[in-house]
Design brief:
alpha/beta; Rossmann fold; three-stranded antiparallel β-sheet; globular; binds magnesium ion
Length: 252
């Protein structure tokens, strides 16, 4: 297996409506990949197809060299609006344990190995300091850390994060980006991350999937960060600026 995601003539549909068509590309293992596109363009839909939660409308999609299947333990997932879906009264450590014990949750079967991997995941995201608080008692940035710990606890080969920077201020966005950089370096995991603003992630992305004019495309990050492409994608003027230090950013 050499690819994290391969699409051959893939189309996505929901409730009979085509969302996007003609996805044909292959992305290697070990990359950090952005998924970008306007609201409603089908970013979450793509992740749901990779997770086997939604069938492909046509074509062939393989994830980590296999057809998508529900509950694939090789994939860690943080859904969009994670906190709203999960409820706020659960303790952070229990939430992370849920990622490890899955179906065994509630049956009391938590082994020493489970506890060790929960601790390792909490360590990886620097969340031990608030692990015994409830989700309602920590900040949005801390909640996002706990969510990533839950996705990491099964030691996945692929991490799918749907808008992990939403509702975070610039400093907390930066902290999550640094966290992704560290997790990627330490765990050899491929990371797909849905974002609206590419700027905070530019330094860590290898490439991006972009949903443009009803089609899915993939490009290396240097090709995607292009004034004309981003202006077309977001339907608003966007400039790509490179500073003397070599930093790249976009602005409207
Ligand atoms: N459960 C559903 N049933 C039917 N249609 C849906 C469902 N969820 C989303 N859609 C539609 O599918 C399209 C793609 O939605 P999706 O959630 O994948 O977009 P997105 O790119 O993730 O958007 P956002 O940036 O707002 O999160 C939208 O037109 C949306 O209205
Ligand atoms: Mg979405």
């Amino acid at each position: 297996m050499t690819s994290s995601l391969t699409l051959e003539g893939v189309s996505a549909a929901r409730g009979g409506d085509r969302i996007w068509t003609d996805g044909s590309f292959s992305i290697g293992l070990g990359a950090i990949v952005g998924v970008i596109g306007p609201n409603g363009s089908g970013k979450t839909t793509l992740l749901q197809m990779m997770l086997g939660l939604l069938p492909v409308a046509s074509g062939t999609l393989t994830v980590l060299g296999e057809p998508p299947r529900r509950g694939n333990p090789r994939i860690g997932y943080v859904p969009q609006n994670y906190t709203a879906e999960i409820g706020e009264s659960i303790r952070c450590r229990d939430l992370v344990t849920l990622g490890r014990t899955g179906a065994r949750w509630g049956l009391g079967g938590r082994s020493g190995a489970d506890r060790a991997s929960v601790d390792a995941a909490l360590d990886a995201v620097s969340a031990q300091g608030f692990a015994d608080r409830r989700l309602s008692q920590i900040s949005g940035g801390q909640q996002q850390r706990v969510a990533i710990a839950q996705a990491l606890v099964g030691d996945p080969d692929l991490l799918l994060l749907d808008e992990p920077l939403a509702n975070l201020d610039v400093r907390h966005q930066h902290e999550i980006v640094e966290l992704l950089r560290d997790v990627h370096a330490q765990r050899e995991v491929t990371i797909f991350v849905v974002v609206h603003d590419l700027n905070p992630l530019l330094s860590i992305l290898d490439g991006a999937i972009y949903l443009l004019d009803g089609h899915a495309h993939y490009g290396a990050i240097g090709d995607v960060v292009d004034s004309e492409l981003l202006t077309h994608l977001y339907d608003t003027p966007i400039k790509v600026v490179r500073t003397a230090q070599g930093d790249l950013f976009t602005r409207s």
